[in-house]
Amino acid sequence: TYQRHESAGYLTNWAGRLFVRAIERRLAGGNAGPMPVFFALADGSRLSQSALARWATVEQPTMAYTLNRMERDGLIERTPDPADRRSALIGLSKLGLQRAHEALAAGMEVNGIALSGFNPAERDAFFGMLKRVAANLERDGEPG
Length: 144
What we know:
Elements: H1 8-26, H2 35-41, H3 49-56, H4 60-72, E1 76-81, E2 84-92, H5 94-114, H6 120-140
Antiparallel strand pairs: 1-2
Helix pairs in contact: 1-5, 2-5, 3-4
């Protein structure tokens, strides 16, 4: 029978939701939704919506919704793509950069809490196993 506490999918999903909740408690705005965009653009990069969707591994409509909310909140700026006038490049605004740094700091703090008590070998093993799980699932999603 299915035992959720012995399910890699359930435990990974549950841990992910706990990470998000912990990060949101630390953010003034309380929303971790823009985190993938913050990760992609915090270094000052400017990317197209399609590149951001690929980077975050989300569908285009999901990224469009996220970017529209971020634009409404003054977190991003869109500029014409010099290589393709039909497209825009997205970068973080001054406020967006500030929020990105706050979000990344919150993420680092929560990661530290999540891994507290792990010795370096355990951390390496944990990350190695998660990477293998991700690689296995990525291969499963590839056309046969």
